[in-house]
Amino acid sequence: MLYVCTANRCRSPFAEHTLRRALAVAGIDTVTVASAGLLPGGAPVPRAGLVVARERGLPLAGHLSRPLADLEFPLETVDLVLVMERAHARELVADHGAPFARVFTLKQFDRWSATHAFGGTRLGEWLDDAAEDRSPAALLGTSATDDTADPIDRPAPAWRTMADAFEQHARAVAQWLAPLRGHDASSSSTPAS
Questions:
Q1: Contacts with 36 (C-beta within 8 Å, 6 or more apart), sequence order
Q2: Is residue 20 in some structural domain?
Q3: Does 19 fall in a domain?
Q4: What is the DSSP string of the chain?
Q5: Would 120 disulfide with which of 68, 115, 124, 126, CB 3.0-4.6 Å?
Q6: For every one of its 193 residues, what pLDDT tens digit does the chain have, with 9 covering 90 and above?
Q7: Residue at 191 is within a domain
Q8: How many domains does the chain have?
């Protein structure tokens, strides 16, 4: 499973580490979670973000942003890609070859997964079939309602709001992925689930 945002300094690393913790609490150890950004890497989490990460017990103090180009696996092998904005989804599908059925904005996935119970042990293969009913317009449109706001230049309260939303998201995803508890989620070692 891969989270992608613009720079991998704010949203995607917060989402990644929040989900990792939720999966550990749920006893799901077969899912690999990673994050990346669309911009060049090497930048730290902003100061307000580090304050909130420390409050939440997220290990982001040493985080440096990682660009999508530096992933150690091909994007098309990732089972589920959750992006923060529709613009990210458009770029990943159109320019980077990410499979449409496996790319959702985080908010879109939260709605979609609430009505589509996970019914398999191989997430990517299952999504290829289960998500074929999605309209490209639903993901690739221009509405900002599915976007998660970037707190990059905002004070700590904006980061806390984002972190609260990611905690709710992570609990829901961990519950949704409960069928993977104790199963090998993927035959590869990429963030495939």
A1: 2, 3, 4, 8, 12, 66, 67, 68, 70, 71
A2: yes
A3: yes
A4: -EEEESSSSSHHHHHHHHHHHHHHHTT--S---EEEESS---PBPPHHHHHHHHHHT---TT-B--BGGG-SS-GGG-S-EEESSHHHHHHHHHHH---GGGEEEHHHHHHHHHTS----S-HHHHHHHHGGG--HHHHHSS-STTPPPP-TTS-HHHHHHHHHHHHHHHHHHHHHTGGGTTS---SSSSS--
A5: 126
A6: 999 999 999 999 999 999 999 999 999 999 999 999 999 999 999 999 999 999 999 999 999 999 999 999 999 999 999 999 999 999 999 999 899 999 999 999 999 999 999 987 789 999 999 998 888 776 666 667 889 999 999 999 999 999 999 999 999 999 999 988 865 544 333 454 4
A7: no
A8: 1
Q: How far apart are CA 116 and CA 146, in angstroms?
A: 18
pTM greater than 0.85: yes
Contact assessment for residue 11 and residue 83, using Cβ atoms and an 8 Å cutoff: no
Phi, psi at 158, each rounded to 5°: -65, -40
C-beta contacts of 115-118 below 8 A and 24+ residues apart: 117/176, 118/176, 118/177, 118/178, 118/179, 118/180
The CATH code of the domain that includes 70 is: 3.40.50.2300
Domain hosting residue 154, numbered range:
2-180
Give the span between the Cα atoms of 166 and 109, in whole angstroms.
13
Q: Is 95 domain-assigned? A: yes
